[in-house]
Amino acid sequence: MQVLLKKIKKNSIIFLLANIWTAVFVQKVQKNGVKSMDTDIMANIEQCYPRMTKKQRQIAGYIKDNADMMTFITLKELSRELGVTEITILNACRVLGYNSFNEVKYEVRKYINMSRRIGLHQQNDYFNTDVPEYELNDKEQLLTEICREERELMEEYARNFDSRRLMDAAKLFWEYPKIILCGRGLSHIICRWMASDLAGAQIGSVLVDTELNESVYSALPVIGGDTLLVAVSFPDHYFMTEKLAGYGRKKGAKVLVITDTPEAEITRHADELLTVRSTTRLFLNTASAPMAMVNLLMSAVKIEGDMEKENIGKKFGTLF
User: Fold this and answer.
1) pTM for the complete prediction?
2) How confident is the model at residue 153, as a pLDDT?
3) Which structural domain, as residue segments, surrounds residue 87?
4) Is residue 189 part of a domain?
């Protein structure tokens, strides 16, 4: 009987301690604003903001106002940008309920990607390429008209062809020791095509698919003043390609932008710009005109390379 009473007493103490621990944890959550798994980081900042110090609010405000930059910035860079210590930033992260600065960056990326998916869903009509029923009455005529539109895109590019601009862009591939090609969707396919042609000219390059976070972040450490960043961005002008171009510009890289119009937002980051129209009635992007321009660009790279070899040969010949 005494053994049973001791066991009951022991279990009661354990139960009491568990209740006390739970109460303390709940109080801590309410006091410090520990994050909920269902709360995005922006809502979490709003929730914690009234309890934050002046400097912590400065950091939280920067996160809210510069979400895109937060995906790239390092702890040291943010410290320098805001004029606060790294410890202050880490304390702000803890007040928000995160164990590290990397957790904050992860949550910002998650927030951006979720917001982007919602935006794309809301703009679904922009991507709708269903052929109207009245166009299907004469399918062969429709296909003939599409063929004519493809040809007109090519003719338009040929009319506006600027050989000097293309040759200037081609020289960059020989001037910079590090080359990064980035894009998404059709733009990434164009990057892969360029990488293959560059390899044929014995020029190495790094491919980045801007739709994949790990691909983007693995490239960040190598971007600097000795880098040529080629940002290919055709509709839907993916936001991360633009952000990577902006990051490259900030880091001192030379940025070559290839896109469909000078009005595209990514062009504000361009040191050199090449454009060609890519949209037809049936597709958001057709590969015909963009691939033709890339073929010409790679031809210009080959020409520049052959000229460089010839010049080196001449200089070598003068030694004898």
Assistant:
1) 0.68
2) 87
3) 38-117
4) yes
